[in-house]
């Protein structure tokens, strides 16, 4: 089972969610802004309130950092070629950021 702790306004979380959708994976989404108990649960499980935070109970791993999460998802649930996977681009303002140019 996959569980993702996220904030709706977080662009790094959006990148992870786009990858989950692209890979058509079932995931339990936990919005830490919706309930203080969910945020407390995140801190209890991961040690800090940072998002995105993925728990993959099947693989026995939990991790922060969108790049690491996406690489893990590609390796274990995608083509297995995380390094060759296309970069997921998410822009919340409608403008292209420097790193995506």
Question: Can you offer a commentary on this structure?
Answer:
The radius of gyration is 14 Å and the shape is globular. Mean pLDDT is 86; it is low at 82-86. With 101 residues, it is of the alpha+beta class. The chain has a single domain (2-89), classed as Glutaredoxin. Strand 3 and strand 4 (61-64) form a beta hairpin. The relative contact order is 0.20. Helix content is 35%, strand content 17%. It has a four-stranded mixed β-sheet, with helices on both faces. Helix 1 (11-22) packs parallel to helix 3 (66-77). The chain has helices at residues 11-22, 36-46, 66-77; strands at residues 2-6, 28-31, 53-56, 61-64. The longest helix is centred in the first third of the chain and has 12 residues, at 11-22.
Number of domains: 1
CATH class: Alpha Beta
In CATH, the topology is named Glutaredoxin
Number of strands: 4
Count of alpha and pi helical runs: 3
Strand order of the largest sheet: 2-1-3-4
Distance between the termini: 35 Å
Q: Write the CATH homologous superfamily.
A: Glutaredoxin
Low-confidence regions: 82-86
Order of helices and strands, N to C? EHEHEEH
* Major pleated sheet: 4 strands, mixed
Fraction in beta strands: 15-25%
Q: Helicity level, as a percent range?
A: 25-40%
Radius of gyration: 14 Å
Coarse structural class: alpha+beta
The CATH architecture = 3-Layer(aba) Sandwich
Mean pLDDT level: 86
Coarse morphology: globular
